[in-house]
Amino acid sequence: MSLIERTARWVSPETFKLLPLWFPEYARRGLFYKGNWSEPQMNTSRATGHSMHKSEGNIHANEALTLALGLRKKLRTNWSCCHIWGVDDASYQLSNIVVQDHCFFSCVGNMVLLPTPLKAFTDTMPDVKAMLRICAYNLYGWRCDHDNLLATHAVLDDWQDWVGYPQSWPRTPGARLPLGVVALSPTIRTSAQKRIATIRHDLEHAGDFYPREKVRAALTYWKIEV
After folding, report:
1. Among 7, 83, 151, 168, which residue has the fewest nearby CB atoms (within 10 Å)?
2. Which position has the higher pLDDT, 72 or 25?
3. H or E element in which residue 42 lies
4. How far apart are CA 86 and CA 79, in angstroms?
5. CA distances from 56 to 31, 33, 44, 218 (A)
6. Alpha-carbon distance 94 to 117, whole Å?
7. pLDDT digits (tens, 9 = 90+) for 189-218
8. What is the pTM of this model?
């Protein structure tokens, strides 16, 4: 936890308030389209010639976090975007339906940037996950309210094991800022404004495959006006 405390990079609460959700058109396992959402984007195997529809892994979550931290992708080599709220499954056998929800996949209050080797701890260790969630809730004043996480909230509400909890992390809402918070800058603000403009444009002009209903539902959830 000391390594995570010293190296984690968090989006600032001001940036979260400015634009909590950066890519409402994408979610884990969502299908990709080209030509401004007008035709499927396919991956073709060189070995077999078989084509498959390309789908979202973590590309736009990564991009959302990169922009909200005012970084460029090439400057964060060996760093990984870690989702904070999601289905807990150390065996990687369960489908993570939380990040398959457009409301939560690219939410910057649901992510933290960590050195890639530390991602294994956040993916598999329940106590590490719990402490990240406590910190994120107290930092942003928000926790994921997906139905599959209601039991998790009860555990966090009763949390008493503060021995390993980082000293710089808040234990109550707004108590303090953890180490590694990246302040809202003019660059980040401009990126957010560009994203809002793109969403507005695509709702009006993107092709038939643009998921307008899901985008509008996600924007409504976050009270984002475009």
Report:
1. 151
2. 25
3. strand 42-44
4. 20
5. 6, 11, 16, 17
6. 22
7. 999 999 999 999 999 999 999 999 999 999
8. 0.92
